[in-house]
Design brief:
The protein has 274 residues and is α+β, with helices and mostly antiparallel strands. It contains six helices and eight strands; from the N terminus they run H-H-H-H-E-E-H-H-E-E-E-E-E-E. The termini are far apart.
């Protein structure tokens, strides 16, 4: 033992185990705190770097999304405008079509009225011409059957007989405009077909048939002569004189092919081709 051991002030105090442990714990806690603080400081110091590296990627994605949204909005607006323009065009076209239809109906009605008026005028002219012919030739009907030998008692022979036989055989058949037989005829179709039986080729229409042969007087008719109504070259009807003051013709849709006396509808003139 030291010679100063018995003096209290020079004796080294003994540290208790609990105080040493406590101090060690405190020191450890401080060091742990510093470590955590350091780690946190390091993490906080590194965080801006990490955010700075990721920011361009996020910004580019966001810009792309914004651009896509803008494109979609613009496309939607364009589609809306296009649809509106189409609707407007369709409405305008429908309105124009309706107006055109109404105009077409008016024009058709006007044409119909004009055609009806023309038909009535033509019928009136024909009636006037018939009345005029009756007035101008009063002796024709009186001479039929009792007049000159040429119109009353002539007997057809040869080609004339064949023509007369043919037209009489068609009596009772229908009148059809443009028809040339065998079941129906119009007036010039009957005449053309009749003379075709004897090898004579005549024009197809009344106007041309009225100038196809030699003009003859109505007072000097012979069986087989072609009768015409209207002017020579502008005749509107033809028939065949069959003798004894009679003629055969395809008159109209109501009567068909008939045999009638000249007084029934006195002709304007006649031509001879036989």
């Amino acid at each position: 033992m030291s010679h100063t051991a018995h003096i209290r002030s020079h004796r080294k105090p003994r540290r208790s185990a609990s105080r040493v442990a406590m101090r060690a714990g405190v020191a450890g806690g401080v060091l742990g705190t510093l470590a955590v603080a350091g780690s946190s400081a390091s993490a906080n110091a590194a965080e801006p770097v990490t955010q700075t590296l990721e920011l361009p990627t996020l910004t580019a994605d966001l810009a792309a999304q914004v651009a896509q949204s803008a494109d979609a909005t613009e496309q939607a607006a364009a589609n809306y405008r296009l649809g509106a323009e189409r609707d407007a065009a369709a409405a305008k076209a429908a309105k124009q079509a309706k107006a055109d239809l109404a105009d077409a109906k008016k024009k058709a009605e006007a044409r119909k009225k004009a055609a009806e008026a023309a038909r009535k005028r033509a019928a009136a002219r024909a009636a006037a011409e018939r009345a005029s012919r009756t007035t101008d030739r009063p002796t024709l009907s009186a001479s039929v059957g009792v007049g000159s030998t040429s119109t009353s008692v002539s007997t057809a022979t040869g080609s004339a007989a064949a023509v007369i036989s043919f037209v009489k055989a068609q009596v009772g058949k229908a009148y059809v405009s443009g028809a040339t037989g065998p079941s129906a005829y119009d007036c010039s179709g009957l005449v053309q077909t009749a003379f075709k039986q004897v090898g004579i080729s005549l024009p197809r229409v009344s106007q041309d048939q009225s100038t196809a042969g030699t003009q003859v007087s109505l007072s000097n008719l012979q069986p087989g002569d072609i009768l015409y109504w209207g002017g020579a070259g502008s005749a509107y009807h033809v028939g065949v004189y069959v003798g004894d003051g009679m003629f055969v013709g395809a008159q109209n849709p109501s009567t068909g092919v008939v045999e009638r006396p000249l007084s029934y509808d006195p002709p304007s003139g006649a031509v001879r081709v036989l």
